[in-house]
Design a protein that fits this description.
Helix content is 33%, strand content 28%. It is of the alpha+beta class.
Length: 315
């Protein structure tokens, strides 16, 4: 049975950006970053209104095809609810199409906002496990979504579900406190779909073995041994194949690594993420970033998605 939400309730969700893969952990490792989108949802008597501020304003659809709206609808179905009408306000700081998990943040934020709505109707919120599953169904893999749900660093994996579909899971990883994060975001845009087609359908046993060893080592480096980050972030399965599509990012990645910064493509790129226990970036790296249109900053690890609920203010 589907229940109808009351009119005039609101929910707010705040959700972090994320970086996936981290080099060798293709579609498995993820890390939340301290850059956030905010989604505010209000139930109304009828209709749909979507408002977008910041990143994506004037570029994304303002109707039922908007990714946040689709996630809200999926979350309401899963919770056994419907809404007579909605106002959805998105205040975005996460850059779009840069490899920083903007789509995962939209989905996780929409689902978390549903938690804020249904609790006001007397129902239990969805668990983190349920949020990861639903968000993973949108993404097709749970690395960004799990990082956005749980915050911090995560290891995620996919199993075959009993219904024949995919079952998405994740476990948190405690990031070593000495590790500093340096995302570099270019003006260039890219999409996962465009760069994924550059990857081969099959890889050699040697390459697979190499990445398995580095992904395992990366968990050690992230949690206990930051001095191993350079070796642990080596990859042969996806970054070299994507380099030609984003030459400035590939060059910047190389410069950072030559400077002793464990740099990786953030997700499918074109953003680059540097990880290091040292303070700041070398002058050579900063100068290249500025000259080639990268916005370079230092961020802390992102927090788990959080949601609140209330009653809409009336004049």
């Amino acid at each position: 049975m589907t229940h109808t939400l009351p009119v005039g309730i609101t929910a707010t969700a705040v959700v972090a950006a994320s970086s996936a893969n981290l080099g060798p952990g293709f579609d498995s490792l993820g890390l939340a970053l301290s850059l956030y989108d905010e989604i505010v949802v209000e139930t109304t008597e009828s209709g749909l209104r979507v408002e977008v501020e910041g990143e994506g304003a004037g570029q994304v659809p303002l109707d039922a095809t908007h990714l946040v709206v689709r996630a809200i609808e999926a979350g309401l179905r899963a919770a056994g609810y419907s809404a007579p009408g909605l106002i959805v306000r998105c205040r975005n700081d996460i850059p779009h199409s840069r490899g920083l998990g903007s789509s995962a943040a939209a989905v996780v934020g929409g689902l978390a906002a549903v938690n804020g709505l249904v609790t006001q109707a007397g129902s239990e919120p969805m668990t983190d496990t349920q949020l990861i599953q639903l968000a993973g169904e949108f993404e097709g893999h749970p690395d960004n979504a799990a990082a956005a749900v749980l915050g911090g660093a995560v290891v995620s994996w996919t199993d075959a579900g009993e219904d024949g579909g995919a079952r998405y899971s994740a476990a948190p990883v405690r990031l070593h406190p000495d590790i500093r994060l340096f995302p570099a975001v270019p003006q260039q845009r890219s999409s996962t779909a465009e760069t994924r087609v550059l990857l081969p359908e099959q890889v050699s046993h040697i390459d697979a073995r190499f990445n398995v060893s580095r992904a395992a080592l990366l968990v050690v480096a992230l949690t206990e041994r930051p001095d191993l980050l350079m070796a642990a972030t080596q990859d042969v399965l996806h970054q070299p194949q994507r380099a030609a599509a984003m030459p400035a990012s590939a060059e910047y990645l190389g410069i950072l690594r030559r400077c002793g910064i464990a740099a990786v493509l953030s997700g499918a790129g074109p953003s680059v993420l540097g990880m290091s226990a040292q303070v700041g970036l070398p002058a050579e790296a900063l100068e290249f970033g500025t000259a080639n249109g990268f916005t370079v900053s230092e961020m802390s690890v992102g927090s788990a998605v959080r949601w609140t609920s209330g009653v809409a203010a009336r004049n």
